[in-house]
Amino acid sequence: MTRFTFSLAATDGAARTGTIVMRRGTIRTPAFMPVGTAATVKAMKPEGVRAAGADIILGNTYHLMLRPGAERVAKLGGLHRFMNWDRPILTDSGGYQVMSLSELTKVTDEGVAFRSHIDGSRHLLTPERSVEVQRLLGSDIVMQFDELVRPDVSEKKQREAMDRSIAWAKRSRAEFDRGGEHAASAAIFGIQQGVLDEALRKRSAEALIDIGFDGFAVGGLAVGEGHAAMLGCLDFAPGQLPVEKPRYLMGVGKPDDIVEAVRRGIDMFDCVLPTRSGRTGQAFTADGPINIRNARFAEDQAPLEPDCPCPACTTYTRAYVHHLVRSGEILGAMLMTEHNLWFYQRLMQGMRDAIAGARFAAHADDFLDRYRARAR
Question: What's residue 102's pLDDT?
């Protein structure tokens, strides 16, 4: 049984392409993971997510712990069986929700005490409990429990959060290793913190490397720092992590952000953007995003994106999808989401091919020039 193997097939500058092999399947990198927060990629059936080209999806520890409950999911055969997805699943640790729902939380060295945003019930999420929940879900790639803070907090709080994340990384690793059969078949990633500070990021990376993980995430970005600041951090953060391990940029993002991050050596991504945008009327295209609600599409008989091979584009017109979305019909959200997921997976395949062909820089520049042209 293959637990976890990462192999690089080609590099082009800092950009890399390769594969992660696990018992439930192979993940082609660079990879985009559709987000299945509550055991579903919203508006999609699992078979449709796979048909779009996704090799792996993301599940959310915090939300699944609260509803329907990790113990219940385990009783029902694990997350894969529960949602009928037989490919790899990465589960986040709950750290992001700790920050985003901070008005409901209290952070100590032990963990995070919080009130459920659903019913107000009280919980304590520790590194041990976070990993236990991920084990109960049957996660293929477990994320360490961490604390992330926004870039506008004091330097003291940035250091404290980074140090606490290192301590929690040790506890997460130890709890993962106690997982018996699950630990023998799954992987665990550490999460680099340090906000935008190069020295803090280096300290974090060195500590995580010393602990030992199967892969490493660049955490604490895409939380309000802005595009330029994020790219500035990515100019040094991936290079602080081992070349032979996959690098995962959490919560990113927009198509142009993903291209720029691959240029800087990132291998894995996740973001709610393609599904959330699909539900709100935004379709991604090679010529930039379009708002299908716009009146100019009311009689447009072209597909959402010309030359797109997705079922939505090969079957329906902009005019029809415009009507569905403006009418609040569920099918509108389904078709828009399907197209956006196909767009993201085609984006990743295009970059994999370009890296393998040693033409990534030109490919990335051409994509970005075209994608951003409408905004100029």
Answer: 61
